[in-house]
Amino acid sequence: RREPLALINLKKKNEETGEEELASRLNHCKAKATRHIFLIRHSQYNLDGRADKDRTLTPLGREQAELTGHRLASLGLKFDQIIYSSMTRATETTEIISKHLPGVKKISTDLLREGAPIEPDPPVSHWKPEAVQYYEDGARIEAAFRNFIHRADAKQEEDSYEIFVCHANVIRYIVCR
């Protein structure tokens, strides 16, 4: 769903019309609308929590989420959905933001959970995940990219506006990918 040519079976080509039919089929697969994706990192959270459920938003984090919700609402856009990580800090951020965007559908997914998608280059001293984590997290975050980051469907008539609330490493991966 990234290139219209990838959506066409090139083997099914009418020998008589040839290129004209290909152009027509290609035009039929092109997106007529644009997907606008807002990537938002969760707000500040309690770093001292041992488990995910203990890593709740701090008072500053709740204020950050409120301000983000206000700002998104002030844009005057008709948001279609909020897709968010199932981790506590992203879920709490989403709940606060969504109060300012009534009626917007919310979808939680484990694919957007924080992780180590790829080994940092150059290496960093403060963060050294186990090597196996790159394989597990990398595959999951790549699956999130393939699942959620694509052009609008050819049938989509109007632009869409979607919010993703997730984590710094996931956002970096999506932007760089």
Q: What is the strand content? A: 5-15%
Q: Describe the sheet with the most strands.
A: 4 strands, parallel
Poorly predicted runs: none
**Rg measurement, Å:** 20 Å
Q: How many domains would you count in the coordinates?
A: 2
- Globally, the shape reads flat
SSE string: HEHEHEHEH
Task: Please count the helical segments.
Answer: 5
Instruction: Compute the number of strand runs.
Output: 4
Q: What proportion of the residues is helical, as a percent range?
A: 25-40%
The first-to-last residue Cα distance is 15 Å
* Strand order in the largest sheet: 1-4-2-3
Mean pLDDT: 88
Notable characteristics:
alpha/beta; Rossmann fold; 4-stranded parallel β-sheet; 5 helices; 4 strands; protein serine/threonine phosphatase activity; His_Pase_superF_clade-1; Serine/threonine-protein phosphatase PGAM5, mitochondrial; necrosis
